[in-house]
Amino acid sequence: MANPLLITVCLCVGTYFICGIPFGLIITSLMTHTDIRSMGSGNIGSTNVGRSVGKVAAALTLLADTCKAMICSIAARELVTATLAATNRAATMPDGTWGWIGGMVVLAAIVGHVFSPYLHFAGGKGIAAGFGAIIGYAPLVAVGLLVVFLGLVLTTKLVSAGSVAAAVSMPFWMAVLYHALLHVLISVALASCIVIWAHRSNIVKLLHGEEKQFSFRSSCKDK
């Protein structure tokens, strides 16, 4: 039988380096020949890209950041199914025998995005990467996160409020929808804490009523 610890370490390290790829920086550089870190809030995520560059760049960044983590999460489940779970995919779910490995991969995806090895351990705020990883690991939780996020963003136009609320709700959805085991909930709670920490400046602005409502830049030529 394959070594579960070795497989987990390899999956987490691979996920960390893949999810550390700063697509917001790459896409903005290709489209505008500028560094997104010198624009707006300086963040490489799709929200700042949308505000600073425009809809197309934001959509591409969101898609890339989501897909990189989703692919890692799906690939991890398939590998664990083939090597440890005797082709029983149910065992890789949050309430399954090997579900804790998927929880670790979700954590690694968020850590990679927030602390990118390619940007001196700086990065985005983990929302798109975390959402992508959850899609591949626990899709019902992804639906719950989307409901919370959109519910707040559509009513307040505050992306940070929706992001923080979704992060806070993630362990709850995992427990209610999948009856996740304790070690899975710990991994997910840590991932949520990292996302909340990455939004610490936004939280301060929200508390003081200073957070700006989201709007797209009309075009790249308006700089």
Structure characterization notes:
The chain is 68% helix and 0% strand. With 223 residues, the protein is an all-alpha fold. It has one domain (4-210). Helix 2 (23-32) runs antiparallel to helix 4 (55-83), helix 6 packs antiparallel against helix 7 and helix 8 (159-178) runs antiparallel to helix 9. The longest helix is centred in the first third of the chain and has 29 residues, at 55-83. The N and C termini lie far apart (58 Å).
What distinguishing features does this structure have?
single chain, 223 residues, mainly alpha, 10 helices, 68% helix, globular, disordered C terminus
The number of E-state strands comes to 0
On the 0-100 scale, what is the average pLDDT? 92
**Structural class computed from helices and strand pairing:** mainly alpha
Gross morphology is globular
Radius of gyration: 17 Å
- Binned strand content: under 5%
- What is the oligomeric state here? single chain
Q: Flag low-confidence runs.
A: 219-223
Task: Sketch the major β-sheet.
Answer: none
- Count of distinct structural domains: 1
